[in-house]
Amino acid sequence: MANISAGMVKELRDKTGAGMMDCKAALGETGGDLEAAVDWLRKKGLAKAAKKAGRVAAEGLIGVALAANKAVVVEVNSETDFVARNDLFQGLVKMIADVALTAGADVEKILAAPVGDRAVADAINETIAKVGENMTLRRAASLSVGKGMMASYVHNAVSDGLGRLGVIVGLESDGDPDELKAFGRRVAMQVASANPQAIDSSALDPAVVERERNVLAEKFKAQGKAANVIDKIVESGLKTFYKEVCLLDQSFIFDEGGKKSVAQALKESEGRARAPIRITGFARYALGEGIDRPTGDFGGEVAALARPQ
């Protein structure tokens, strides 16, 4: 039998909101497999919908840079928040983001790219020597459009294009630039707040959809639902799931009543722009997500900013 530690139980509880004893039982039943334990709890109706909250194991900054039809977002880590507030470090992150506009999103290519008479990797090492703290370029993402507008949003900004959470969004359109700029920023804030997994259901990983389908089916089967109605209930459950994880299906955070979807807001923006608009993609980086250290509720903070004061 797997050795179930208190830390494992706490991590599962943080992910699911289930009780401590239920989490311990789930881990015991699944041999300590965290993801399988999440599914076990959900099938028993003991867990909330699984949402993988990012965890921060390093300080640093998210950097965003935009050109006419291209945008990049990078994460550069430091050991302490004190260094992240240092002008030298902030200048380094801005430089890396600007280089990535040309070099692309491959970390190794960014590190090897020239900046003046040296490579980016050398610039990082020089900054480490001056500041006395380790720094790493962890990841990068880029988006581009043929014709349209790139938009961005940086939360907890310490300087232009630098903060603890950054989003870039691509809008394909030949509509009014002012409308595209305004709508694009709102979409970027939507992504920052609601953290969608894909633009729509067709863009979701089929394995994610199948996993959700299986969890729902097992849950309703355990509740004694008749086999001939489970499929219909599951399809209804999937629609609810899509509203949580698909950008166009989500409730638009700028709609006070909460009834308007992002897709409906898009249609309204097309009318003002006098042209079709297609959201081609987005990238959302929260500082240190996926590494084991608690972080703030970025989504809740962004949503609060969207509410009328």
Q: Could you characterize the architecture of this molecule?
A:
The chain folds into two domains: 1-50, Helicase, Ruva Protein, domain 3, CATH 1.10.8; 59-198 and 251-306, Elongation factor Ts, dimerisation domain (Tetrahydropterin Synthase, Chain A, 2-Layer Sandwich), CATH 3.30.479.20. The strands form three sheets. Strands 5-2-1-7 form a four-stranded antiparallel beta sheet. It has a three-stranded antiparallel beta sheet with strand order 6-8-9. Strands 3-4 form a two-stranded antiparallel ribbon. It is built from twelve helices and nine strands. Helices cover 47% and strands 19% of the residues. A hairpin with a 2-residue loop joins β3 and β4 (118-119). It is globular, with a radius of gyration of 22 Å. It is α+β, with helices and mostly antiparallel strands. α1 (6-16) packs across α2, α2 packs across α3 and α8 packs across α12.
In short:
This protein is α+β, with helices and mostly antiparallel strands. The chain contains twelve helices and nine strands. The chain has helices spanning 6-16, 20-29, 34-43, 81-84, 87-103, 107-112, 120-131, 177-194, 206-222, 227-245, 262-273, 298-306; strands at 59-66, 70-78, 114-115, 118-119, 135-144, 148-155, 162-163, 165-172, 278-286.
How do the strands and helices of this protein lay out in sequence?
Layout lengths: L5 H11 L3 H10 L4 H10 L15 E8 L3 E9 L2 H4 L2 H17 L3 H6 L1 E2 L2 E2 H12 L3 E10 L3 E8 L6 E2 L1 E8 L4 H18 L11 H17 L4 H19 L16 H12 L4 E9 L11 H9 L3
Antiparallel strand pairs: 1-2, 1-7, 2-5, 3-4, 6-8, 8-9
Helix pairs in contact: 1-2, 1-3, 2-3, 3-9, 5-7, 8-11, 8-12, 9-10
